[in-house]
Design a protein that fits this description.
The chain is of the alpha/beta class. Helices cover about 35% and strands about 20% of the residues. The protein has a domain at about 10-180 and about 205-215: 3-Layer(aba) Sandwich (Rossmann fold). It contains 10 helices and 15 strands. The radius of gyration is 21 Å and the shape is globular.
């Protein structure tokens, strides 16, 4: 289960700041479910899902049900019914922070009596739905927001503290929690932008919780997000191949499996993986084989792409969860 992707019948939470790439990761997961014949329910509470994004990520419209509920009660009831009927294989809630309940809508904006309402409602929902999800094999991706915690002073070294809405229950019921932040753009993305080929940014994902075991050296990872196309699989494979030593590096020269000539520069190496199916396939198979070998032999000394030990520390701030946060 540690390397088996998204656990079936469990909850995965994706938290992050605005524009980091949370929905992009959720859509990528949805595509993987559809490739295995799964049906996806996308609950768009933010009413912000761009239909063109579905096409860009390769989603099948016939296997995707989209709902834009008017209230939090309507959204949670819909999810409950669909899970009970086993009508879907994956539910995406976008987002938890945007759930607005009827009692909130009917009150004056100055009325603060609804504090903690989201946490209470969602906790009650999870107590009922989570056992049914596990029994029926329905997975759920909960997208959530990270907000700066203004009740505490920022750490001069670590930066501001963050909190996420939804209370403590989601921490208990989520089997996997991933946090997303925008990272300084990779050279590959910068070259695409400067060349006018595409636009995007690099996303850093941090695995904060994994009930199925976190592989040492794999608590964090970075992906290049190309707008209108999704995450770039070729740059991701290049980074993994360098990290595992599948692609050897000597100075600025790279040797790629399945490709006869050495290439100079990382961007050129990614181009070869993109244009040569044989090189891509051999490199991918070698990465998977090496990863499985390391797990079997308990060898987790993963270097980074430059040959230095990978630092998995996360310096974007300390994280907390406030039960009363809406």
């Amino acid at each position: 289960m540690a390397i088996g992707g998204v656990p079936v019948g469990r909850i995965l939470e994706i938290e992050g700041v605005a524009g980091a790439g949370k929905s992009s990761l959720a859509l990528t997961i949805a595509r993987a479910f559809q490739r295995d014949g799964g049906i996806v329910l996308y609950v768009d509470m933010e009413h912000a899902l761009y239909r063109g994004s579905m096409e860009a990520f390769g989603l099948d419209p016939e296997a995707t049900a989209i709902s834009q509920p008017a209230s939090g009660e309507e959204a949670l009831d819909l999810i409950k019914v669909m899970v009970q009927r086993q009508a879907v294989d994956l539910v995406i809630l976008d987002s938890l922070a945007s759930l607005t309940f009827q009692s909130e809508m009917e009150k004056d904006s100055s009325d603060s009596s609804s504090i903690g309402l989201l946490a209470r409602k969602f906790s009650s929902f999870l107590r009922v739905v989570h056992p049914i999800m596990e029994e029926n094999g329905v997975s759920m991706v909960v997208i959530n927001q990270l907000r700066q915690d203004i009740s505490s002073k920022p750490n001069p070294r670590l930066g501001p503290r963050y909190t996420s809405p939804g209370g403590m229950a989601k921490l208990f019921y989520s089997s996997v929690t991933i946090r997303a932040f925008r990272s300084p753009n990779s050279d590959y993305i910068n070259k695409l932008i400067n060349g006018g080929v595409a636009y995007g940014h690099t996303v850093r994902f941090q695995i904060e919780k994994n009930r199925f075991g976190i592989i040492p050296g794999f608590r964090s990872f970075q992906l290049d997000l190309v707008y209108g196309k999704g995450f770039d699989v070729h740059s991701d494979l290049a980074n993994l191949a360098l990290r595992f030593g599948v692609i050897s590096k000597s100075g600025s020269w790279y040797t790629i499996p399945g490709f006869p000539d050495r290439v100079q520069g990382k961007n050129e190496m990614i181009r070869v993986l993109k244009e040569s199916p044989e090189a891509f396939d051999k490199t991918r198979k070698a990465v998977i084989a090496d990863f499985l070998r390391r797990i079997e032999t308990n060898d987790f000394a993963f270097p980074d792409s430059e040959g230095e030990p990978l630092d998995d520390s996360f310096d974007n701030g300390d994280f907390s969860d406030d039960f009363g946060e809406q």
